Amino acid sequence: MLLSVQNLSISFDNKSIIKNLNFNIAENEKVCIKGVSGKGKSSLFNAILGFIIPESGIINLYDKELNAENINFFRQNIAWLPQQMEFSSTVKEFIELPESYLANKSQKKESFTIQHLLKTFLLDEKILENTMQKVSGGEKQRLGLINALMLNRKLLLLDEPVSSLDSDSKNAVMDYIFSKNELTIISTSHDNEWIGRCDRVVEI
């Protein structure tokens, strides 16, 4: 078992967001977390990454329990695409940003891979010269996905990965993601095509 979530509960300001959630993720699975807005899907990802502390419950990755001692282990083995990304940097600086994080020091991106992913996701290489403020929501979403993929993690947390994409871009992203049998994907999405290509759905 790659990831295990046991009896997880998350509350904010005495309001229960997630209550007694249980699920397991096997290696190479593509799983979609589904629930209405406000049900805590993004909070779940933040808990798995150790950004918020759950009210109760246990999260295990490769049989290691998430705690202060193991938090770097989790972050070194997970890549994350958040729903909102706001940076004032250039696109090139944004792509290179994860290399500056302590958890990613051992990773090194190869320029040919960046070029390959830009082409795969229907992005012109000239976009690297732009600032992040000038790119569209759909372009930003694909650039964030490139960032996540370039970290060479086996587990990706993707929060609404195709919500801002047109049909062609969405198909390019889905064809690539779902062809990578070596990747384990936990995603949130309201997109029926994305959900339909996942191995299963976990309701919260």
Give an overview of the whole structure.
A hairpin with a 2-residue loop joins strand 4 and strand 5. 30% of the residues lie in helices and 25% in strands. It contains 7 helices and 9 strands; from the N terminus they run E-E-E-H-E-E-H-E-H-H-H-E-H-E-H-E. It has 204 residues and is α/β, with parallel strands linked by helices. Helix 4 crosses helix 5 (137-150).
The percent range for helix content is: 25-40%
For the record, give the distance between the C-alpha atoms at the N and C termini, rounded to a whole number.
20 Å
Question: Care to count the β-strands?
Answer: 9
CATH architecture: 3-Layer(aba) Sandwich
Q: Classify the secondary structure makeup into a structural class.
A: alpha/beta
Order of helices and strands: EEEHEEHEHHHEHEHE
**DSSP helix count?**
7
Which CATH class? Alpha Beta
Report strand %. Answer: 25-35%
Count up the domains: 1
Strands in their spatial order, largest beta sheet? 6-7-8-3-9
Extract low-pLDDT stretches: none
Which key terms come to mind for this protein?
Rossmann fold; 7 helices; 30% helix
How are the SSEs ordered, and which strands pair?
Elements: E1 3-12, E2 15-25, E3 30-34, H1 41-48, E4 56-61, E5 64-65, H2 71-77, E6 78-81, H3 91-96, H4 111-120, H5 137-150, E7 155-159, H6 167-177, E8 184-188, H7 192-197, E9 200-203
Parallel strand pairs: 3-8, 3-9, 6-7, 7-8
Antiparallel strand pairs: 1-2, 1-4, 4-5
Q: What's the quick description here?
A:
With 204 residues, the chain is of the alpha/beta class. Helices cover 30% and strands 25% of the residues.
